[in-house]
Amino acid sequence: MSPPGKYGTSIFLNGLEARIDSELVSRPVDILFQMEQDASALGVPVLTPASGAVLRFLVECEQPEEILELGTGYGISLFWMASGLNRASKIVSLERESDYIARVRSYLEKHPFSDLDIRLLKVHCLRYLEEASENPNAKWSAKFVFVDCDKVLYPKIFRILKRMRPDTAVFDNVLWHGRIFDPDRQAPSDKAVREFWEEVKNSNFSYTLFPVGDGLLRIRFR
């Protein structure tokens, strides 16, 4: 049990995260600034620079031969991960929205990662995983999985990854804007992220929470 008063007033100041992102986080490739500005102009939520730096650090440490990304979005997380690889590796990024795929391809034309095999696939993340996990002839080669798709899918994705056993999976938005701690929040996504957390905590896998952005959770399956 936690001591009384342990979870008192936050030490964080208003605007601190924005200062960290703008003044303390170095972008490994300049095009990330344009990508962030484009997303902000359209009101599209994306991975924060601080979260991107942590994600890049994890990729740098592990140097996986193949990365699977569930949810391409604006491509910001893809660029952070690609910049952390120092050998010929493969990144397969799944996205169901054609507009996002087209935009990310335009960014890759401006800043190609010539040493990497980057593939953008228009497909539903869960359907892709289910087909891979149910096909006895499918060869699972991704060693590192980054998950930033529909939060309602997080529990199902975690269960599939438990069977597929990549080395590492990293889930974004696991703090879910603090709604996981508010019992009055009962939207399907709120319930799903809570359910996901319970399954992770009750598993035997090693995991680490990085409280940057909206929370990154690294899970080791091996």
Give a structural overview.
The protein has 222 residues and is α/β, with parallel strands linked by helices. The protein has one domain: Vaccinia Virus protein VP39 (Rossmann fold, 3-Layer(aba) Sandwich). The chain contains 8 helices and 7 strands, in the order αααβαβαβαβαβαββ. A 7-stranded mixed beta sheet has the order 3-2-1-4-5-7-6. Helix 3 runs parallel beside helix 4 (76-83). The mean pLDDT is 93.
Tally of extended strands? 7
Shape: globular
So, the CATH homologous superfamily?
A: Vaccinia Virus protein VP39
Structural class: alpha/beta
Largest sheet: 7 strands, mixed
Order of helices and strands: HHHEHEHEHEHEHEE
The domain tally reads 1
The rounded Rg comes to 18 Å
Report the sheet-strand fraction: 15-25%
Unreliable segments of 5+ consecutive residues: none
The percent of residues in helical segments reads: 40-55%
The name of the CATH topology is Rossmann fold
Terminal CA distance: 30 Å
Question: What's the tally of helices?
Answer: 8
Q: What CATH architecture label applies?
A: 3-Layer(aba) Sandwich
User: For the residues shown, what is the average pLDDT?
Assistant: 93
Order of strands, main sheet, comes to: 3-2-1-4-5-7-6
Task: Supply the CATH class.
Answer: Alpha Beta
Keywords: Methyltransferase, S-adenosyl-L-methionine, Transferase
InterPro entries: Cation-dep_OMT (IPR050362), SAM-dependent_MTases_sf (IPR029063), SAM_O-MeTrfase (IPR002935)
Protein name: O-methyltransferase
GO molecular function: O-methyltransferase activity; S-adenosylmethionine-dependent methyltransferase activity
